[in-house]
Amino acid sequence: MKKNTNHCRCVGLRLSPALPTMLRLLLICLAVLTTPPAAAEALRKHGDDDDSSSGGGCDAGAGKAPSPPAMWVFGDSYADTGNLGNLGRELTHAWYDPYGLTFPGRPTGRFSDGRVLTDFIASAMGVPTPVAYKLRRGASRALMARGMNFAVGGAGLLDTGYFQRNISAQIDLFQAQHPRSSTRGCDDDAGVAVVVISGNDYSAIAEKDNSTSAAIAYIPTVVRELREQLRRLRDEVGMRKVVITNLHPMGCTPLFTRALDYAACDPLANAGAAQHNAALQSVLAALDPANRTFFLLDLNTPFAAFAEAAPAAGRFEEPRRPCCESFSADGYCGQQDDGGKKQYVLCGDPSKHFYWDDAHPTQAGWDAVAETFRPKIREFLLSPDE
Question: Would you say the C-alpha torsion 220, 227, 12, 256 has a positive or negative sign?
Fold first, then answer.
């Protein structure tokens, strides 16, 4: 459900066609070994600051209230907090200015000017943002006991062609670190899984076939795989609480609205997102009729409310125009020419924009969305699972 351009425009990763195929593959493979020093140092400090709490969803001791559950994140760039390795500005521009402008004032690999969905879900749960898998060596044991983020920009449920670990492979990583027998104790609580899907599978198909309709035809295949991974998290991994996002209105992202002078959303892409969401609801109804294990985190409704609102009437003065706008339709936020000259324009106040770049919300956008789900997540976590 994504328009074709001359560059790979997946949510979270760009591959330049000018690079030879083998070189591109080598660079992607190197990503798993790359950890920016600044990010690692910041994480070590964060871990030291939090070293006094045990976490993990267990009782802290006799007479003490149980600590919040561990949070395990699987997904793509809407959830990634630093797992996509730094391969240079063109390939992985979230590690470069102006990303991270609002928080923490420098790039951290988050696809925003600041915090992303993972940060706001963690806050709603009452836990620190889980350590990114790539940065785990710099984290304290106490911090890692509270969860981990396996999400990586560009990932999908299936192989998207962007050389990123899909959801199944991310769950494999969790199981390798946490065999089922070792995740038990404390009333058999493995924590809470969060699964974030923002449409890379559909973007890849639309890119390949130059057709939004082809992406829509792919919905049954994607949803079948999603069903399998949700079942796996419950039945094989042993998660008793799983949060799963539905698909935002993709036609309202600047990638689509730019062609409409940012005045409206693309109806066909939005219809595809609605079809995906209807199929997902059917899957959850069949897997969990009592709504005890799975919680559908509705992103579509608040995204639509904010992005489709008239600028004068809505919360954001610029609901569909990105804060960071490339000069050309096939450019990207943070792009520079060979001489280092900026090829993008940056807004004066990101909080007035719902979108940061052509696909990802600003921190203010995510904060507005989070206001709609904070109490619902807390209610879900407190609900009985038996």
Answer: positive
Q: Please name the residues in contact with 271: beta carbons below 8 A apart, sequence gap of 6 or more.
A: 216, 251
Residues 6+ apart with CB under 8 A from 143: 46, 47, 50, 51, 55, 128, 131
For 295, list phi and psi in degrees, rounded to 5.
-120, 120
pLDDT tens-digit map of 192-212? 999 999 999 999 998 888 888
User: What is the token pair recorded at 205?
Assistant: 């198909």
First to last CA, the chain: 38
pLDDT recorded at residue 312: 77
The rounded distance, in Å, linking the Cα atoms of 336 and 301 is 35
At 189 the pLDDT is 63
To the nearest 10 degrees (0 to 180), the angle between helices 219-232 and 167-177 is: 10
Cα–Cα dist 165/162, whole Å = 9
Place of tokens 């493995």: 190
- Condensed to tens digits (0 to 9), the pLDDT of residues 6-24 reads 334 445 444 343 444 433 4
Compute, in degrees rounded to 10, the torsion defined by CA atoms 314, 317, 318, 320.
0
With contact defined as beta carbons under 8 Å apart, do 200 and 256 qualify?
Answer: no
Q: In this predicted model, what pLDDT tens digit does every residue of 270-280 receive, in sequence order?
A: 999 999 999 99
Residues 6+ apart with CB under 8 A from 115: 103, 363, 366, 367
Q: Which of 142-146, 296-300, 323-327, 338-342 has the weakest average pLDDT?
A: 142-146
Distance CA 263, CA 358 (A): 15
254: left (phi over 0), alpha (psi -120 to 50) or beta: alpha
Distance CA 203, CA 193 (A): 25
d(CA 23, CA 27): 6
Q: Which long-range contacts (CB under 8 A, 24 or more apart) does 303-308 make?
A: 303/248, 303/249, 303/252, 303/369, 304/248, 304/249, 304/252, 304/270, 306/354, 306/365, 306/368, 306/369, 307/249, 307/252, 307/265, 307/354, 307/355, 308/249, 308/252, 308/265
Give the separation between CA 386 and CA 383, rounded to whole angstroms: 9
Q: Which residues are catalytic?
A: 77, 357, 360
How many whole angstroms separate alpha carbon 379 and alpha carbon 297?
12
